[in-house]
């Protein structure tokens, strides 16, 4: 069985985001970029399934500019077998991502597609669900545990009331949550080996898919600065401020 893992290149989660002076978006010039943390978890889960004998090959897929090769090389260094980059310089929205991934799935015919539940740059949490709908395949989101069992895969997923167990017929789509695993660090020997693993580049425009953005960002702004707190000595002072300044008490 093949497993496809989509990975996204995003601003590193340790970086403090800066908005461009003209408000047109987030400044990414000379900013550290890395693999989306949820996608890193998805790569780790796919590799663990392969190590357990449930898969023969793990394929990392990314959509974006040429620099996204760095993200794919990270996935290869972690243990993915090969990678595919659908190259485009356009900003890609979730539906366009799902359509491109659909083409990748039809090309590679994997038994499982494992995605991070969302990307930390837009927090859309839509791609996995859209991909399942486009392919008409069973899906399980927010996975806590993934256990392939012959022609099915058992997925324990996190829900508001606790845990829910689903059995999906393969092929299927699964999105993973934070607590499913702890991603491994790529060792130096594996980083060197990753440079020799196959990385295929495909022009996204050649797929004949409409990937033009449908949403226009009018303005990007930083959240307002919070005012400093005030220490009060008595409960009476607190009640007075809540009444006179905050207006929450009558």
Would you list the SSEs in sequence order as H and E? Answer: EEEHEHEHEHEEEEHEH
CATH architecture: 3-Layer(aba) Sandwich
General shape: globular
Sheet with the most strands? 9 strands, mixed
User: Major sheet: order of its strands?
Assistant: 9-8-7-10-6-1-4-5-11
- Terminal residue distance: 66 Å
Give the rounded overall mean pLDDT: 92
Function: The electron transfer flavoprotein serves as a specific electron acceptor for other dehydrogenases. It transfers the electrons to the main respiratory chain via ETF-ubiquinone oxidoreductase (ETF dehydrogenase).
Cofactor: AMP
GO molecular function, one term: electron transfer activity
InterPro entries: ET-Flavoprotein_bsu_CS, ETF_a/b_N, ETF_b, ETF_beta_N, Rossmann-like_a/b/a_fold
List the SSEs and their pairings.
Elements: E1 2-6, E2 9-11, E3 33-35, H1 37-51, E4 57-64, H2 69-78, E5 82-87, H3 94-108, E6 112-116, H4 127-135, E7 139-149, E8 152-159, E9 162-169, E10 172-176, H5 188-194, E11 199-203, H6 235-246
Parallel strand pairs: 1-4, 1-6, 4-5, 5-11, 6-10, 7-10
Antiparallel strand pairs: 2-3, 7-8, 8-9
Helix pairs in contact: 2-5, 3-4
Structure description:
This protein is of the alpha/beta class and 250 residues long. It has a single domain (2-223), classed as HUPs (Rossmann fold), CATH 3.40.50.620. It contains 6 helices and 11 strands. A 9-stranded mixed sheet has the order 9-8-7-10-6-1-4-5-11, sandwiched between helices. A two-stranded antiparallel sheet has the order 2-3. A hairpin with a 2-residue loop joins strand 8 (152-159) and strand 9 (162-169). The longest helix is centred in the first third of the chain and has 15 residues, at 37-51. The N and C termini lie far apart (66 Å). The model has no long low-confidence stretch (mean pLDDT 92).
């Amino acid at each position: 069985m093949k497993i496809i893992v989509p990975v996204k290149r995003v601003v590193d989660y340790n970086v403090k985001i800066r908005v461009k002076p003209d408000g047109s978006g987030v400044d990414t010039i000379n900013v550290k970029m890395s693999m989306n943390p949820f996608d890193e978890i998805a790569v780790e889960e796919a590799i663990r399934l392969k190590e357990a004998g449930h898969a023969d090959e793990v394929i990392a897929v990314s959509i974006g500019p040429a620099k996204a090769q760095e993200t794919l090389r990270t996935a290869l260094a972690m243990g993915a077998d090969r990678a595919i980059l659908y190259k485009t310089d356009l900003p890609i929205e979730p539906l366009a991502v799902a359509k491109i991934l659909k083409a990748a799935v039809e090309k590679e015919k994997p038994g499982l597609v494992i995605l991070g539940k969302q990307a930390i740059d837009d927090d859309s949490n839509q791609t996995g669900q859209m991909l399942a709908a486009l392919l008409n395949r069973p899906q399980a989101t927010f996975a806590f545990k993934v256990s392939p069992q012959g022609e099915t895969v058992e997925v324990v997923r996190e829900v508001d009331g606790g845990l829910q167990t689903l059995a999906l017929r393969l092929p299927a789509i699964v999105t993973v949550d934070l607590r499913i695993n702890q991603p491994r660090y790529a060792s130096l020997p594996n980083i060197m080996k990753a440079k020799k693993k196959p990385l295929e580049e495909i022009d996204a425009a050649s797929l004949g898919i409409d990937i033009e953005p449908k949403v226009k960002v009018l303005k990007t702004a930083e959240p307002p600065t919070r005012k400093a707190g005030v220490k009060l000595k008595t409960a009476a002072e607190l009640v007075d401020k809540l009444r006179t300044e905050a207006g929450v008490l009558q």
